[in-house]
Amino acid sequence: MNSVTMTRKTWLKAAVASLTLAATTGVMAQQPTELRVGLIPSEDAQAMMRASQQVMDQLAAKTGLKIKPFVANDYNGVIEAMRSGKIDVAYFGPFSYVLASQLANAEAFAIPVAKKSGKSSYNSIIISKKDKGLGTVPQLQGKTFAFVDPSSASGHLFPKAGLKGEGIDTDRYFSRVIFSGSHDASIMAVANGKVDAAAVADPIFQTAVAKGHVKAEDFQVIWRSKDIPESPMAWRKNLDEATKKKVAAALAEIKGLPWGDRGELNGFAPTNDQAYDVVRQTAKALNLDLGKMK
């Protein structure tokens, strides 16, 4: 073998090695160094940040990614942030997730498991002040009422559908209906006499009581919904697979920390898009066109 042949082989090997290194470096460069996480505003933005901080810190430690939390002013703000690619993962409500799956390429992958209850579902309740003397749904006719947000499962969709099943058109039944913007705001609207009754998530009401914001004995639960699937964590479908695996594994291991109104966590269990078909069916019962909702 002559020296020219050797030189060509050596050059080819060096070229292949160089291309391989460049390709590998390119792949490594594409791996994200941060994860942008959206949070639904079940409380005000600052309260949500504080309530989720320990979980976000653990997520950063377990994934090695810098976590950038984001709380919008309303549910649709989080959906829009995912649609426009400004966030990678979000904690949605059940209905806001259904919207996000259709409008923002979101895919549910995990749900928080409360250590105390171990449940993967919760309920919507309608509450009133005891001193108002409003203990039944028929007594609410002509009264003022608060929903949380048009895209809230427990604060709008399920109670509205449930009452419709009882022959009640909430647009006509109450003298005035408002959207408060958050479950906490609805609870305080009832507590302060701004509205006669409100539909909120049972776990959030229980948390408000536990924190001393309101007294349980001052309220009564007038109505309770059927079980609602737990609020999911969802990622952009086009998030890279390595990051998906890393995030899902990290969330599954996060235990013993507080997570918003769900209390102490016992990790995040796997879920999928099909688990929210009951939410889609409820929306259909209300003749809601998901494609037109924003």
TrEMBL record:
Residues 1-29 form the signal peptide. This is Phosphate-import protein phnD. One of its GO terms (cellular component) is ATP-binding cassette (ABC) transporter complex. GO terms for biological process: organic phosphonate transport; transmembrane transport. Pfam families: Phosphonate-bd. The gene is phnD_2. The lineage of its organism: Bacteria, Pseudomonadati, Pseudomonadota, Betaproteobacteria, Burkholderiales. NCBIfam families: 3A0109s03R (TIGR01098), PhnD (TIGR03431). It comes from Comamonas testosteroni (Pseudomonas testosteroni). Residues 34-263 form the Solute-binding protein family 3/N-terminal domain. Belongs to the phosphate/phosphite/phosphonate binding protein family. It comes from the Bacteria. SUPFAM superfamilies: Periplasmic binding protein-like II. Keywords: Signal.
